[in-house]
Known about the structure:
By secondary structure, this protein is mostly helical. Helices cover 80% and strands 0% of the residues. The protein is built from 11 helices and no strands. It has helices at 10-31, 38-57, 61-74, 79-91, 95-108, 113-125, 129-142, 147-176, 178-194, 197-207, 212-223. Helix 1 runs antiparallel to helix 2 and helix 2 packs antiparallel against helix 3 (61-74).
Amino acid sequence: MHLLYRYPVKSRLSFLLLVLVACVYANSASALGASDTTQPAAARQTDWLTHATYLERRQDWHGLLDWGRQWTQTESSNASAWFVLGLAYGKLNRSAEAIAAYRQDLAIDPADIFALNNLGNLYRDNKQLREASSAYREAVQIDPNYIPAWHNLSLTFLAQKGVAGVTQALQKLSVSEPGLADAWRKLIIEYSVSRDPRVAEKAINVLRGLDAEKRRRMFEILFGNV
């Protein structure tokens, strides 16, 4: 299970921080001294994210936990605050609390693919493979270009069904979609053995190019009984 690819969660915090800093500067430039209620809110958000990113880079998980608690108490409807809290709990191996925090994040922002991927990782670590698979599938349905969730989904699928079960499922898929079956075979089996990222990239390029309906049918064939 340790082979599952984990996306660097700090990228979410860094990305949000970059967006918010740009927002603050844009508001400052456009306001020209006029009152703008969105600017203070964005500035406060930037302060929260800046310190959270700093604590994460230092791997100060207890500090991040305290910060996440303060943030969620101050802004209980802010998805990023709950993400930070989930991250801290996860790093401290408090999985039940981490799962609860990520669920709260997703209740506020259902399209948060970073939270879905991290939630899947927590479920997987707790041997809740069905729930992990569901979280990863939801992430790639929202953003088919999110490669980490594809990696995690394929390896969780292997853990769920085993080699024999995966082979049977791919044979079923190959009847209607031989190209997709081959892509999954490369991702699940060849990549797991070779760890060659080029193998994974080629397979994922096929999978993420599917339209929503074709992706739904593919998942129905592969995961219908798991």
